Amino acid sequence: MSQAEILWHRGVVVMLLVVLLLPLAVTLIYALSSTWGPRFYRRVLRLTGFWICGATRDF
Predict the structure, then answer these.
(1) CB atoms near residue 53 (< 10 Å)
(2) DSSP state of 3
(3) Where would you tag: which of 11, 14, 22, 56 has the fewest CB atoms within 10 A of its CB?
(4) What is the pLDDT of residues 1-58, one digit of tens each?
(5) Nearest to 59 by CA among 26, 37, 36, 27
(6) Keywords, A to Z (predicted)?
(7) How many domains in the chain?
(8) What per-residue confidence (pLDDT) applies to 31?
């Protein structure tokens, strides 16, 4: 395979990982915050940009 094909395949794999793992990470953070108490995860939610994902719950 040429260098361009390798870079293209790597880009596709990275984009798929982001698309698949980002929602999983957001779901995990939300589940932990609602289970263990919102005050404990308030800083984590703000640092990870949780509000960008459409969460409207007041933390």
Answers:
(1) 15
(2) H
(3) 56
(4) 799 999 999 999 999 998 888 888 888 877 777 766 666 666 666 666 665 555 555 5
(5) 37
(6) Membrane, Transmembrane, Transmembrane helix
(7) 1
(8) 77
Overall size of the chain counted in residues: 59
29 within domain boundaries: yes
- Domain enclosing residue 29, as ranges: 22-59
Contact of 45 with 59, CB cutoff 8 Å: yes
**Measured between alpha carbons, how far is 35 from 4 in angstroms, rounded to an integer?**
46
Q: How far apart are CA 44 and CA 38, in angstroms?
A: 10
Is residue 58 situated within a structural domain? yes
Give pTM, 2 decimals.
0.45
Q: Is residue 49 part of a domain?
A: yes
